[in-house]
Amino acid sequence: MKISVTPEPERKEKVGDFADLAHERIEVDEGVKKKSRLPYSIGFKPFDTLHLACAESVVAEVLLTTDDKSK
Question: Which of 32, 52, 54, 68 is 20 to 30 A from 18 via CA?
């Protein structure tokens, strides 16, 4: 989802390559949306809150972010 709105072609390609390594794709359902509310309420950006909530929902061992800075 966020990859498609990445403005830099080189970064978009690299992120896409990493995404291809994913073992599973997570659907953003009501449970994930609910988990994303707390990070959003303390200032995280919407995509970042969904990213965290998706990782938490599957008890991910690794969370990859490509943000230049994170909160």
Answer: 32
